[in-house]
Amino acid sequence: GKVLLEVNNLKKYFEMTNGFFGREKTVLKAVDDVSLYIKKGETLGLVGESGCGKTTIGRTIIKLYEATDGRIIFDGKDITHLSQTEMLPYRKRMQMIFQDPYASLNSRMTVGDIIGEPLDIHDIARGQERKEIIQELLRKVGLNSEHANRYPHEFSGGQRQRIGIARALAVQPEFIICDEPISALDVSIQAQVVNLLEDLQNDLGLTYLFIAHDLSMVKHISNRVGVMYLGKLAELTSSRELYKRPLHPYTKALLSAIPVPDPKTADRKQRIILEGDVPSPMNPPSGCRFRTRCLYAEAICGETVPELREVASGHWVACHLVHKIN
Ligand code: SF4
Predict the structure, then answer these.
(1) What are the ABC transporter domain coordinates in residue numbering (predicted)?
(2) For a pocket test of ligand 1, which of 321, 323, 324 has the largest count of ligand atoms closer than 8 A to its C-beta?
(3) By C-alpha distance, which of 246, 239, 237, 198 is closest to 219?
(4) Of 154, 188, 181, which Cα lies nearest the Cα of 166?
(5) Is the CB–ligand 1 distance for residue 253 below 6 Å?
(6) pLDDT at position 3
C-alpha cells in the first residue's frame, strides 16, 4: 500500500532549566532520531515504558509540539514546519484520541456539543445537519443517539472513550493517533474498545498510530510494532514476527513479562525480569541506552550508539550483539 505518514530522523528536545535560579540548562532528548512510516489502512503500534518518548512522537506528528529536527511527511507533503493556518486542512485529516477520556472531555458540555465542536471549528455542518451527523457518530461508536443530551459524568470509562472516538471521527479523518486509548480502562472493556477501533478502521479505511505501554495491548490491532526505549526505537517489525521472534533484549524482556493466562496451553517461555528503573532521559547512558538493564551488555555497548539495522527482511533492531545473542 501507499505510505500515508513518514517520519524521518525525528528529534524532539525539550530545554529544561533547574538548579538555583534556573541557571542550569539540561536538554531532555524525548525523541532522538526516530524514523518510521505508516502505510494507508495500517496500524503501527508504538510501545515502551513511560518516558520512552512514544507520546511525544504522537504529539509532534500532530504538531502539538514543534519538531526540533527531522521531517514529518503526511501524504507526500512535508508538514514539519507548517504554520497553524497552513496546518488547518491537515488537522482535519489527522486526529488524536487520548488515554483519559474524562480529562479530555469538557465536563460542562453535553456529549452532543463535545462531538459537534470539531464540526463547528471546521465549519462542517450546522443546525439539523449537525444534529444528524452527531447522532450518526454516536451510533457508529455503539452509543445511543439519544445520549447527545447527556453529560460525560453520566457515562462509564469505556463509554467516554467511545465519545472521544466519535469526536475524533467528526471531521472524517484518515489518520488517528491513539494515545494509550485503553490503558485507563478495565481489562474487560479494553477488548471492546480495540474491537470498535478495528471495525471503524475496516469501515472507514482509517490508519492508526496506536501508542501503548504494554505489548499485550497492541498485539491484536497492530500490523507492525515499534518498541521504544529512552527516545529511540529498539526494534521495529511486523506484529507476528515481533511476538514470535523478538531479537532485541529489551523486547525479549517485555514479552516475557506478559502474564500468560493458561499455563497449560501457553508455550513455556523463560521469564526475564527487567531489573532497575528506566534511567532518567535527562541523563541517558552512553552508547546503548538500554545497557544499564541489559543482561548481555559488553564493553562496546557503552562506547557506541547501536544503529537501527534491518537484520532480517522488514525486521529492524538496534543492538550491537543481535547476532550473538539470538
Ligand atoms: Fe544490550 Fe548491548 Fe544490545 Fe544494548 S547493544 S541491547 S546493551 S547487547
Answers:
(1) 5-255
(2) 321
(3) 239
(4) 181
(5) no
(6) 98
Q: Given this model, what pLDDT does residue 270 score?
A: 58
> How far apart are the C-alpha atoms of 291 and 279, rounded to whole Å?
10
pTM: predicted TM-score of the whole model, two decimal places? 0.92
Q: In percent, how much of the chain has pLDDT > 90? A: 76
Name which CATH class applies to 3-222. alpha beta
Spatial neighbors of 133 by CB under 8 A, at least 6 apart, are 116, 119, 124, 125, 170
List where CATH 3.40.50.300 sits in the chain: 3-222
Q: Residue 232's pLDDT is what?
A: 97
pLDDT in tens, 6-64: 999 999 999 987 766 767 788 999 999 999 999 999 999 999 988 899 999 999 999 99
- Give the E-state strand segments of 75-202 in sequence order: 77-78, 94-97, 175-179
**Helical segments of 94-149, H only:** 101-104, 111-121, 127-140
For cell 514479552, what's the residue? Answer: 255
- Test site for ligand 1: of 308, 320, 325, most ligand atoms within 8 A of the Cβ: 320
Residue with the three cell numbers 464540526: 119
Q: Is the CB of 306 under 6 A from ligand 1?
A: yes
Nearest residue by C-alpha to atom 5 in ligand 1: 319
Q: Atom 7, ligand 1: which residue's CA is nearest?
A: 291
> So what's the ipTM on this one?
1.00
Check: CB of residue 37 under 8 Å from CB of residue 46: no
How far is 100 from 103, CA to CA, in rounded Å? 6
Q: Is the CB of 316 under 6 A from ligand 1?
A: no
